[in-house]
Structures are given as C-alpha cells and as structure tokens.
C-alpha cells in the first residue's frame, strides 16, 4: 500500500472528531509500512534520541532519497508513516525545504504525544534532514 501524501494526511486527520480516532488512523498508517527484515536492524541504523527503537535505512537513486523504517512500538511506526509521507522518495532539496514545523502544526500532533515521543520524532526528522543535506548537489 502506498502512503497518502502529507497533504492528504492533514485532510484525513481533520475529518476525525477526536484524538482517539486520529491515533487509530496513525496506527493504521504505520501498519501499512512493511518494516525491515531483522538483518537490517543493525546498531548503525538505529536513530539516536528515540525512546523506542527506530531503524532508518536510506537509499539514493535518480536524485531521490528513499527511506525504509521500522520501530518496535506501534504508535512510533505510525509516526514514522507521517514522516515518510513528507520525506520519502523526494530530492535532497525537497527534503531540506519541506516545512516540517508547519506540517506538524497542521497535524496538531505535538500537543497530543508525550514529550519523549516528540523528542524522538524530532530526532528522526533531524537524521533524515542530515542525510538530505549530505546529498545536496
């Protein structure tokens, strides 16, 4: 299953009346991500700064960066889906220019997740942006 775009996710979440329904939508998005095989869950792919284990694998082809991710926590897998909707299969320039703060604000997300989850989300975004900056040409 292909993830909806970041704009579609913002629209979809606005449709729900309460955060319990929104959490379920985010969890369902996370379930659509295939995850990583165990042999790719290596220490060098762990994202530092996350309370849960989060693995990130990037590949660069035809000017675009593709990310494969996995987590040992269901809600974090859903948050990873939100991040992938914004960044996956984009050019390094598109990644570095994306207004992630505006995206998270539109989702009204950070008011509804724990501070440690928020820090982990920022760590994931930071890692992706660092990878994109390293591939800017």
Automatic annotation (TrEMBL):
Domain of life: Bacteria
Gene3D superfamilies documented for this protein: 3.90.1010.10
Family of the protein in this entry: Belongs to the SufE family.
PANTHER family, alphabetized: SUFE-LIKE PROTEIN 2, CHLOROPLASTIC, SULFUR ACCEPTOR PROTEIN CSDE
Domain Fe-S metabolism associated: 11-130
Name of the protein in question: SufE family protein
Record organism: Alteromonas hispanica
